[in-house]
């Protein structure tokens, strides 16, 4: 049975018996299912459950050990990705405005200039994250929450159809979380597909209609109330007790599943 399916919704991304790992040691086993177009999906699970690994595979940073990912005609430029750790040297003297403008690099190139239309788009993105007054401030002078707003503004400029967020609210203040959730819900209302790795179960219940619960394999995937049950969450909490860090790639037995 395929998981994650929503009746009437075309898939944005599909997994077919997908196994991911590092140095032939699997981190995620045999995922099959669809992420529908326009979905607002949370990925939850214990540490080491494979959540970030799955996002890295979606963005093309990690190749499958077996199985495949189908993007249904989407291309790399259709995907925007915010990893847990962003490789920006905040000691480098770059302004908030210029850092946000980096979200346009796919359009203008690494050495492209910012014309009036592009500058207006950057200004609009800054306004959307409430950073207009800080446009000329060095990024190194920002708080953690302010810097996360900068990163969300860059995502706005990418105008992507699929948005992947890996722990976007880690070490961020409550006001910033509220404002950034507003942006995520705006993307959802625009019909974009948003997938976020999260730890805050209450936040997931309040704002994410669908959830994928991982423990190196799919424990549950579907409507959030049906996924985040006490039984499923207890299974997730007990996941680390049975982890074998040195396991090798296992072979999927289709006959046993259909028997």
Automatic annotation (TrEMBL):
The keyword Nucleotide-binding applies. It comes from the Bacteria. One of its GO terms (biological process) is zinc ion transport. One of its GO terms (molecular function) is ATP hydrolysis activity. SUPFAM superfamilies: P-loop containing nucleoside triphosphate hydrolases. The keyword Zinc applies. Residues 13-241 form the ABC transporter domain. Keywords: ATP-binding, Ion transport, Nucleotide-binding, Transport, Zinc, Zinc transport. SMART domains: AAA. Belongs to the ABC transporter superfamily. This is ABC transporter. It comes from Methyloceanibacter methanicus.
